[in-house]
Design goal:
82 residues; alpha+beta; 4 helices; 46% helix
Length: 82
């Protein structure tokens, strides 16, 4: 009876991170583990979607079936608030 060790799981995850984009991996993990709440941090650096909530977070909105809570860094100021 072979049990996965934490180290074995970390190695597999590291391989997946190299072979997939962050968004693709997150979508796969949400589906595989039946996650119902996703919390994601974002810097929101590039483009219009990135300016509002972050490119990866924006892409995930239409691809995950769970709720998504996006956390901005300290000091972030919305460009839409006067």
């Amino acid at each position: 009876m072979a049990e996965d060790t934490l180290r074995d799981r970390q190695r597999r995850l590291a391989r997946e991170l190299i072979m997939q984009t962050a968004a693709d991996l997150i979508v796969e993990m949400v589906r595989q583990h039946r996650i119902n709440q996703l919390v994601i941090g974002t810097l929101g650096r590039t483009g219009i979607p990135g300016f509002v909530i972050g490119n990866t977070a924006e892409r995930l909105l239409g691809e995950v079936s769970c709720s998504e809570f996006v956390v901005k860094p300290p000091g972030f100021a919305s460009p839409f608030v006067g």
